[in-house]
Amino acid sequence: MYTRILVPLEHSPYDAAIVEHVRKLAKFCGASVVLIHVADGWAARNVSQLNLRESEEMREDREYLEHTCEVLETDGLEVECVIAGGDPAREISDAAAREGCDLIAMSTHGHRLFKDMIYGSVASEVRHLSRVPVLLVRGERRAGGRGPEE
Fold first, then answer.
1. Tell me: the pLDDT tens digits for 99-114?
2. Which CATH class is domain 4-138?
3. Domain range summary for the chain, segments of one domain joined by +
């Protein structure tokens, strides 16, 4: 079925739903997992061009991604981490091709029309840019936590 699954994480409580879903799917398929976080702040978008140091936010995002990677590895999954900077939808679809992924699995916030018009929808853009299937799982904002349960 699937051999390599790309999972974009945004470092928010919404990540827990997709991490849990992919944990089960990857075990079922025997697939490896590639976690990606796309930092899209000013520093992240310009770190290479301006030779900037890693910002505190970027450092926290990297640590979060590595921690999530470790949690999935202790569950027996083969997992890699990728940090990218720039436009999230473009970076996610490019990473799927570059990393040889045959599925992108991501969490959505479940916005409706008006909020999507204001905030946009990375998931919707990824659907249009991607050459591989995109699995969308609606996440829930969990009180007190930022990410996947251990």
1. 999 999 999 876 555 5
2. alpha beta
3. 4-138
What are the per-10-residue average pLDDT scores of the chain (150 residues)? 96 93 97 93 52 68 94 97 90 97 90 51 90 91 50
Sheet holding 79-85, edge to edge: 79-85, 32-39, 4-8, 103-108, 134-138
Q: Report the helix count and the strand count for the chain, using DSSP H and E.
A: 6, 5
Asked whether the beta carbons of 89 and 1 are under 8 A apart, the reply is: no
Cβ within 8 Å of residue 137, ≥6 positions away: 17, 18, 21, 105, 106, 107, 108
Lookup result for tokens 């829930």: 140
Contact by Cβ (8 Å): 2, 103: yes
Task: Give buried/exposed letters for 111-147 (b at 16+ CB in 10 A, else e).
Answer: eeeeeeeeeeebbebbbebbebebbbbebeeeeeeeb
What amino acid is encoded at 150 in this protein?
Answer: E
- Nearest CA to 129 out of 31, 46, 38 is that of 38
Find the helix packing angle between 88-98 and 122-129, rounded to 10°: 40
